[in-house]
Amino acid sequence: MDVNSITTHLPNPQPDTKRTGSLDHRERLRLALAALWVLDGLLQYQPFMFTPDFAKTLAATAQGNPGVVAHPITWAAGIIAAHPQWTNALFATIQLALGIGIALRPTVRLALAGSIVWSVAVWWFGEGFGGVLNGTANPLSGAPGAVILYALLAVLLWPAADSSTMDHRVTADHPLARALWLVLWGSLAYFALLPGNRTSQGIHDMITSISAGQPQWLVAIDHVAAGVADGRGTALSIVLAVLLAAVAVGVFAPPASRRIVLVVAMALAAVIWVIGEAMGNVFSGQGTDVNSGLLLALLALTYWPVCRTEGAAS
Amino acid sequence: MSGPTWLYDVAAVLMLAVAVYAVGRVVAAVRLRRGTAWDIDLAHVPMGVAMAGMFVPRLALLPWWVWGVVFGVLTAYFLARGVIPGSRRYLPHAGHAGAMLYMVLALPTGRAGMSAGPPHLPTVAWVLGLFMVGYTVVLARSIGAPPPSPDSLAPGGALAYKLAASVGMGFMLILML
Prior knowledge:
Chain A has one domain (7-313). Helices cover 64% and strands 0% of the residues of chain A. Chain A has 15 helices and no strands. Chain A is globular. Chain B has one domain (5-175). The model of chain B is unreliable at 110-116 (pLDDT under 50). The A-B interface holds A 18-19, 21, 31, 34-35, 38-39, 42-43, 45-48, 50, 85, 89, 96, 99-100, 102-106, 215, 217, 282-285 and B 1-4, 7, 113, 119, 122-123, 126, 129-130, 133-134, 136-138, 140-146, 163, 167, 170-171, 174-175, 177.
């Protein structure tokens, strides 16, 4: 097996999947992205999002941001607060349509392009750029903002011009793709060491605060994790930062080593998702998406070196 | 906590449309001598009607225990069909029927968004909701693909109504978290 023969390097390595119905690695990932958008749309239809309180949570993301960022957030939150029902119905429907559009063959490019625009807009107006600009970003709680990862995935999973093939314009080995990975995971390492995140009780307090209202099994996991983090926040932040930094530079490793790095990345993503984010807080009735952990894992799969034989076998 | 009534009304109309379309497919297939999965189509009639009753309680036509029996039988039927080699296409419908069984057992008194009590096994609702989401995108991907049989009756329509049913069920399951 020649691991250097990456499927995505080849101009036309795949069978016609419309005819065969088979799925290649990247199309599976694109369907996973579509599923996440559908899920986000359904979560956005929850009753809480139709109340003015949802607008308050959006407005809160303006705090600490520069005025040029904060004022538009406050303005948008005001509109949503005044018209919570139709605005939220619109938001939810857009996300549902993006998900179905990405899954539908004729509209995949249009929907992916729309998802990039929508992601950037929500990253600004809904997440305040994930706390990146106001010093509150924390890799354990969703930095750099889950929704911007959707945009990154849309770029990486953009299909080729020939719709009958599933090769990709931006491959995992493309310098731009590697640079994006380096910036993303490198920034997470940096955020882990921000003063507010490396206090001795920081991780413990974050875990205990998010476990309220979760199912019993998730509370039990959080309880164990909080016990481990009790008084060890600084040390754990340093360990986390080192691991994140290793993952960041690991994208430049040869494919065999890169797989190990990507497994570590997925393990970190799982820890972030379950312990740090309570699976996107979806059990609270106020989660609007699955948060960053699951997306980081999906991103890692996007960078997984795929052998030429897999496409032929499918 | 309750959501907007109009949203549940829209969802109920969509689910009733699924039921009507499913009936129409069976009738049309018989009259036109075209192929359709009549058992799958017919199963979506009680699914659509029961879902409408969950979204809008005044549309609840039957006691919830009756729906429980119906969906228990349908779940067993689709599971039995699905394990037969070459009939795996029935398994997702076992998921649909199983989700309906869960919903009628977990929501015995009415609308999800109006439920005052604690959620019933929210993790189950989450897992079933994920199934609905996954099945939705699989169905969407299949739209436009060649039909399984040349004489299939409106294969795009079949996919579309199942997709609508999946979205409706997924919505209800998310409301139950």
